[in-house]
Amino acid sequence: MSNQQAVMSGGRANLVLATLFLGMFVLGTAELLVVGVLNVIAADLQVSIPAAGASVTGYALGLAIGGPLLAALTIRLDKRLVLAGALLLFILANLVTVLTASYGLFLTARVGTGAFQGLFIAAAFGVGISVVPPERMGRAISVVVSGVTVSAALGVPLGTLAGQLLGWRGSFVAIVVVSVVALIATLAVVPSVPSSGGGAGSQAKYAFAPRVLAVLVLHVLVFAAIYTALTYIVPFLETVTGVSGPWISVFLLAYGVATAVGSMSGGRFADRSAARTLIVGSIGVTAALAVLHLMGAVALLAAVAVLAMGLFGMGMAPSLQYRVVSLAGPGGALAQSLPASAVNVGIAFGSFAGGVAIERSTASSVVLPGLVIAVIAVAVAWATRNLTPPVVEADSAQPSLTDDMQV
Predict the structure, then answer these.
(1) S-S: 281 plus which of 33, 126, 251, 316, CB 3.0-4.6 Å?
(2) Sign of the torsion angle spanned by Cα atoms 73, 122, 155, 15
(3) Predicted confidence (pLDDT) per residue in 68-116, tens digit
C-alpha cells in the first residue's frame, strides 16, 4: 500500500475518498430508513409493527456478525473488487426487499444487506487509508465515517420523506438507484488495492489480541452510554424537558448535525493523538449525560447536552477506528471490520439498558444508566492510552500504524 500512497496525488485521493463517502452515505441511509417508514412496511406486509421492527435488529446482527465473517473470507482479494462486489450484492438484496411480498424474505434480505454493508465498511477503511500518507490516516477515516453520520442527519429524513411521497418501496428504489451510481463511481475511480498481510488465520492473532479487544470494549461502552439515552430521548424531552411537536424534531436534527460535524472534524484529532482524543471524548460524553440527567428540565441546557453528546461521541469515531487498526498491526486488514460490530453491540446493549430503566421507572431515569456506563468508558479510555502496536519487523511497510503512542 505504501507504493500506492507514493504515486496518488492529493486530488485523486480526495476523489477516491469522496466515492467512499458516497457509498457509506447510501448504505447508512438504507440501514436507518426502515425506522421512518416502519408502520407503512408493517401494513403492507401484514405484520405487526414489532415484527417489522425486527428488520432493524436483523440488519444490525447481519452487520455485526456477517460483516467480519465476509471480511475474513475475502481478505486476500483486491479491495477494489471487494467494494464493487459488496455494492452489487447490496443492490441485489435491496431489489429483493422492494419486490417481495413475503415478510420472511424481506427479513432475510435485510440481514443480508447488513452483512454486505459490514463488508463494504471494512474494505472502505482499507482503501481510504491506502490512498493517503500515514499522517493523514485519521482524516481519511473521518471521511469514511462521515458518510454514515451525514446519512443519519440528512439521508434518513430525505428517505423518509420519499417514503411518504412514493411509498416505502419507492424509497428503497431510490436507494438502489444511488447505489448503482456508487458502484459505477467505485469502478471508475477507486484504484486497485491488493491485499496486504496474510490470510485471516495469520491475522486473527493480531486482530483479536487483548490490546485490540480493550479498545473494542471502549467502542461498546461509548455507544452503549449514548444510546441508552438517545433511544428514549423523545419521551425524556416530552416528560422532563417539556418540549414536544416540532421542537423534538429540532433537537433530533441538532443531534444529527452535531454527529456529522464531530465525525468530520474528529479525523484531525485522531492524526494528532488518537489515544488522547478518546480520553477527552469519553469525558465529554460523560459530562453531556450528566448535564442531561441533572439539568434536563432546562430546555437550553438539554439542547447543549444533546449537541455535546453527538459532537463528542462521533468525534471519537475516527480515533476508535484508528486505534483498532493501529494496535492490530499486521492484522489491520481483518481488524478493520471489527469496530462496526462493536458499535452495533453497544447500540443494542444501550437500547436494552434504557428500555429496562424506562420500564422500571420513568423517562426521567433513562439517562442514569448511560451516565454510569460513560464513567466506566472514561476509565477504560484512560487505561488503554499507552497501548502500543506489536513490533513486527516484516510489517515495516505497513502505512498506518505508528499511532500517537507518545501521550
Answers:
(1) 316
(2) negative
(3) 899 889 988 999 999 999 999 999 999 999 999 999 999 999 999 999 9
Class of domain 1-196: mainly alpha
The chain-wide mean pLDDT, for the chain, equals 85
Chain-centroid distance of CA 283 in Å reads: 20
Measure the CA–CA gap between 403 and 326, rounded to whole angstroms.
Answer: 6
Can you give the pLDDT at residue 81? 95
Place of cell 429540532: 250
Query: How far is CA 223 from each of CA 24, 201, 314, 315, 351, rounded to the nearest angstrom?
Result: 19, 29, 9, 12, 10
Give residues with Cβ within 8 angstroms of 55, minimum separation 6. Answer: 34, 41, 106, 107, 110
Q: Which three cell numbers stand for residue 103?
A: 415478510
pLDDT band at residue 12, thresholds of 50, 70 and 90?
Answer: confident
Residues 6+ away with beta carbon under 8 Å from 234: 248, 252
Q: Is the pTM of this model over 0.70?
A: yes
Q: 217 Cβ partners below 8 Å, 6+ apart?
A: 342, 380
CATH topology agreement for domains 1-196 and 199-388: yes
Structure confidence by residue, pLDDT tens digits, 104-124: 999 999 999 999 999 999 899
Name residue 257's amino acid: V
Domain ranges of the chain: 1-196, 199-388
The CATH architecture assigned to 199-388 reads Up-down Bundle (1.20)
Asked whether the predicted pLDDT for residue 129 surpasses 50, the reply is: yes
Other CB atoms within 10 Å distance of the CB of residue 191: 16
CA quadruple 216, 274, 197, 1: dihedral sign: positive
Q: Identify whether the C-beta of residue 20 lies closer than 8 Å to the C-beta of residue 336.
A: no
